[in-house]
Amino acid sequence: MRRHILALAAGAAVVVPAAALAQARYLNPRDVAEAQRQHAELVAELGGAESGQRGAYVQQVGARVAAQTGVANGAQAFRFTTLNSAVENAFAVPGGYIYITRQLMTLLDDESELAFVLGHEAGHVAGNHAQARKTAASRNSILGVLGAILGSVVGNSGLGSMIGQSAMRYSQLSTLSFSREQEYQADSLGTRYIAAAGYDPLGGTRVLAALTRSSALERRIQGRENRSLPEWASTHPLSQNRLQRALIEAQRSGLAASGGQRNRDQFLAMVDGMMVDDDPAQGVIDGRLFSHPDLMLQFAVPAGYQMQNGTRAVTVSGSAGQAQFRGGRYQGSLEEYIGRVVYGLTGGRQQVAMAPPRQTVINGLPAMYSVGRANTSSGAVDVSVMAYRWSPDTVYHFVMLTRAGQGIGPFAPMVDSLRRLSAPEAAAIRPRVIDVVTVRAGDTVQSLANLMAYRDFRMERFMALNGLTPGSRLVPGSKVKLVVYGSRRG
């Protein structure tokens, strides 16, 4: 709520076809128009965009790199946006719109690394990879995130559209991947672009190494946390071979030995104070708990289940079924509300036989639930809805899909856990932010790692955040990044 070598040594060359480069000289006007139309919606669905100095800084670095792409008026043709998302990712869409999340940006260590990520994504556009991504996105939008997750459960039925348009854009962060060949090409182009722009061409190798470390750490953490976060590494397949190829390409640039610009201090000044992980304004995942300080609510998912937090909904997935939590303004009856939720599952295209809703009270909240059965291409599926009257004009609900005969059963502890947060509990939920500190005499990796705002893996997180390896020693006067608790935005 966490994301192409043009020429190598003899016998190891991957050549970007000249035709592909020629086609990329001008961005397709239709693609540009479509990207412009979708931009505002995409940004809104992915948590909003960083503005002010940070937004301008990323655009400035991106434009400097884009000027080297060969696209006509490249510096103006491409648009770069920093998303307020806890997903560690970056992606490009047809039309030259490139997005990087704050989560990925905080993993980077200097401006040349940022330039490589943006250049890599620009390379996907120049190589026309974004068109293939767009085609995949069109297929994916039919079902959305939950539909994709539920594929093995409900088959190709309309039930998969239950999540609707609200998370369709979010799914683009997690379900689209590139081929190995496309990654080699984008790596190569990204390295060429940043070298031509005067940046250190080794920035790419450092990014790939950092992502490899982050991916390995995430796999370890996943065993203890209930967060389901797609990574840049999953949509941009990593390998040791990619890192080696990037190193060779950087060396071939002729700047690896003499070095280009890294602008580390400037970059660190920009990420200092940047939010890490969940934005409390969108709710926070902490272990099995989801808490939203603004909505003043909290619930817990079953042990072993994973959560993915979107701007309008939380999806929950596990071995026995899938669920989604969402809601908002509504003044009608709970019975009518449940009917609308069920209708929204299929858009009226498929009949779902629901039992008459039954009333209950959960943690002082008036509630109503209903369980039904739907026939899908993969067999019968139980559809359950639990709706809560939060206030006279607000209703929240869980909608759950389980195997026939299970009903709410696998999610019973979850639906019983929804409760109101007290004012002190809500006030105690604070964002994690980057704190850039200067190493002092006597500081050690362990002493600084102890300051990390996490309950576990403090040492490993600190090392991954700063590109350190076992046995690394800190140099007094150098700068490192910490993750500490910050204050809520006004």
Q: How would you portray this structure in words?
A:
There is one protein chain. With 490 residues, the protein is of the alpha+beta class. The chain has 3 domains: 18-276, no CATH class; 280-427, Mog1/PsbP, alpha/beta/alpha sandwich (Protein Transport Mog1p, Chain A); 432-485, Roll (Membrane-bound Lytic Murein Transglycosylase D, Chain A), CATH 3.10.350. Helix content is 38%, strand content 21%. It contains 20 helices and 18 strands. It has helices at 18-23, 29-45, 52-66, 74-77, 102-107, 111-126, 129-140, 144-149, 151-154, 168-171, 180-196, 203-222, 232-235, 240-252, 264-271, 334-346, 412-415, 423-427, 445-449, 458-466, and strands at 79-83, 90-93, 97-101, 275-276, 284-286, 289-292, 297-300, 306-309, 314-318, 321-329, 353-354, 358-362, 365-376, 379-391, 394-403, 419-420, 432-438, 479-485. A hairpin with a 2-residue loop joins strand 9 (314-318) and strand 10. The radius of gyration is 24 Å and the shape is globular.
Could you name the key traits of this structure?
18 strands; 20 helices; 4-stranded antiparallel β-sheet; 8-stranded antiparallel β-sheet; 490 residues; Membrane-bound Lytic Murein Transglycosylase D, Chain A; 21% strand; alpha+beta; Protein Transport Mog1p, Chain A
Mean pLDDT rating:
82
Radius of gyration: 24 Å
Query: Main beta sheet: strand number and arrangement?
Result: 8 strands, antiparallel
Broad structural category: alpha+beta
Distance between the amino and carboxyl termini: 22 Å
Model regions low in confidence, pLDDT < 50 over at least 5 residues: 1-24, 136-176
Number of helices: 20
Number of strands: 18
